[in-house]
Amino acid sequence: MAERPARTVRELGEFPLIDRISRGIAYRTGGVVAGIGDDTAALRVTPGNLLLATCDVQVERVHFLVETTTPELLGRKALAVNLSDVAAMAGIPRYALVSLGLPPETPVSFVDGLYAGLRAEAEEFGTDVVGGNVSGSPPEIFVDITLLGEVEPDRVLYRRGARIGDRLVVTGHPGDSAGGLALLLDPTIPCPPEVAEPLKLAHRLPIPRVAAGRAVGATGLAHAMIDLSDGLAGDLGHVAEASGVGAVLWADRIPLSPELRELARILGRDPLEFALHGGEDYELLVAVVPGGEGRVIEAVERQGGVSAAVVGEIVPAERGLSVVHPDGHVTTLRPVGYRHF
Amino acid sequence: MAERPARTVRELGEFPLIDRISRGIAYRTGGVVAGIGDDTAALRVTPGNLLLATCDVQVERVHFLVETTTPELLGRKALAVNLSDVAAMAGIPRYALVSLGLPPETPVSFVDGLYAGLRAEAEEFGTDVVGGNVSGSPPEIFVDITLLGEVEPDRVLYRRGARIGDRLVVTGHPGDSAGGLALLLDPTIPCPPEVAEPLKLAHRLPIPRVAAGRAVGATGLAHAMIDLSDGLAGDLGHVAEASGVGAVLWADRIPLSPELRELARILGRDPLEFALHGGEDYELLVAVVPGGEGRVIEAVERQGGVSAAVVGEIVPAERGLSVVHPDGHVTTLRPVGYRHF
Predict the structure, then answer these.
(1) What's the sign of the alpha-carbon dihedral B248, B252, B253, B257?
(2) Residue B282: partners with Cβ closer than 8 Å, 6 or more residues away
(3) ipTM confidence
(4) In terms of CA atoms, which chain A residue is nearest residue B284?
(5) Is there a single domain that holds both residue A89 and residue A191?
(6) Residue B259 C-alpha, separation from nearest chain A C-alpha, in angstroms
(7) How many structural domains does chain A have?
C-alpha cells in the first residue's frame, strides 16, 4: 500500500523538507563552489568588484496575507524586493540565501509553490539560491532573504551623493502598488478589472529594475540612487538626508498611470498621495547631473525596458522637501511612508 | 517639559529605531565601503578567497524564551550560531546582516540589549554588522542573521570529503548545551548551582569555535568538518551522508563534562544521550587523516583554546552509523537530532 504523501511540513519533517527544496535547485551562474547542503555556501566574487549584501523579509500579516497572494507570487516578491535593493546600487545580483519560518501545519504544497516562485524569479534575474535555513515559526510564516551581488567600484551608487541642481528621474509608475494594495484589502471597491488587475499585479509582483539600475550606473551621469520601497516622499527623504540636500518634486511630472488615476477617481482621492506615500513600488529614483537626464532616461528605456521621467530637482538643504503643484502653489512634502510599528 | 522616552518600538517608530541601532555600530574590519544606511552594504572580499555565506535564525518560543535568556545573551547567541557555521568551513567571519522581526510592543530596552550582545560578539570575533532590516512581526520576535566570511580555497572544508579510516575529532564537551536546556526548561530539577550554571551557560552562550576551525584548516590534515548543531549523532549523520561513508563512535572516548555526568546522574539518565541527540553544542566535528589526529588536536588546543579528543572513525558506508559501548557491545546510531516540525 502506498504511503499517503505528507501534507504538512510537520508530517514531512525538517530534513526531507530541505531535500525537497534542494532538489529543484540548479546553479546557473558558475560561481557556486558549494551551495545548499553545507554549513555555509562557498562562492566566487569577481576580483576587484565590491560585494553587495542586503536582506529583506516578508512576514505573514505584516507584508502579505495568504488570502491575497499565492505561494508562487510570494516567492517571486520576496526575492524581487531584494533584487530591487541591489538594483538601487547599480549592482548585479548573484546569490540568494532563503531563511524560511514555517508553522508546522504549513502545507507542503505552499513550500513547493513558494520555491517555484523563488526559482522563477532567480532564473529571470540570473541569480542562484545557494543556501538558507528552515525553522519552525509559530504562528506566522516569514520568508527572509539575503541577496548578495557585486558591482564595479566605479559604477556603484549610494543614497548619498545627490548635488544641488541634480535632476530627479523616476522609473515606471509610482503609486500603482499602493493602489493595488487598496484594492486587495477592500474587494468591495467598485473598480473594473481592466483597472484593478494591473494595479493588483504591481503590488503582488513588482518588477525589480535590475537592468535599469545597471544602465544608470553605466552612464556615469548619476550621483545617487534609491529604490522606492517607502513611497516617493519617504525615499526622496532618505536621499536628501544622506546627501545633505533638499528637493522639489513637480507634481504634474510624476508619471501616474491611467489605472491609478481611475482608481483615485473612484475612491475620491488624490492619485498623487498613492505615489508619494504609498510604498512598495520598487521603481528607481535617481539624482542625475543637470543636462544628463535625457541620456539617463534613454539608457533606462532602451536597456532597462521601463519608462522614466524627470520629476523634480535637488535644492539646498534649507529649502527642505516640497511639492510644486500644477497651479504653482507649493506644499511641504512630509517624508512619510509605511510605518512598521 | 521633557518628553518621556519611548518605551516600545511602536512608540519609537521604525526609522528612529534604525538610527538608534546604527549609532552604536563602528566598522572595525576595514572592508566596509558602505554599511548600514544604504540599500545594500558594499564590502571588500580578499581577492582569490572564496566568499562564505550562511544564515540562521532565532525564533521566540522555537529557539528561545524571553523568560530563560536575556536580550544580550540572545544577541550573542544569534550571531554565535552563524559564526559556528563559518568556523565549520575553516573560514574567517567578516560581515553580518541582522534581520529583526519585532512585535510593536517590544520594549526599546530589549532591542538595545540585543544589539549590545550582537556588538560584543561581533567585536570578539572580528566581525562587522553591516546591514539588516527591521520588520513588524506579530506576535513572536525573530532574529535572523546572515553572516559572510571568507576562506582560502586550499583551506576550505566541507561536510563531504571524509574517507574510510579517518579519525573523528570533536572539540569541547558535547551534550552540555542539551543539559543546560533541560535545566532551563525545568527549574525544579534539584541540581546544585556549580553543576547547573556552567551547563545553562553552554546553552545560552555557546562559544563558536572560529579559532579552532582556522587551526584545523591550517593543518591541511582534515578531510571534512561540521559544527554540532543537531547533536553528535545528527551531525555525524550529515557528514557520513555527504561523504558516502559510515562511522563508528567510541562511547567511552566522547568527552562528557563532569557537570553533564552529574546532571544525568540526578535525572537517572544516560549522559551520552545528551551528547548524541541533544544539539546546539556548536562544537566542531572533524574527520582527520589517520595519524594526523595528534597534530590536529594540538593545533586546536593551542590556537583554538579548546580541548579536543578522538571519538571514533570513518568506516565503509555499508556499516552505517554505530556506537561501540565500553563493554564492547555495539548499537546502531540513529542520526536524529532536534526536530523543527
Answers:
(1) positive
(2) B80, B81, B84, B177, B206, B207, B208, B209, B227, B228, B229
(3) 0.90
(4) A39
(5) no
(6) 29
(7) 2
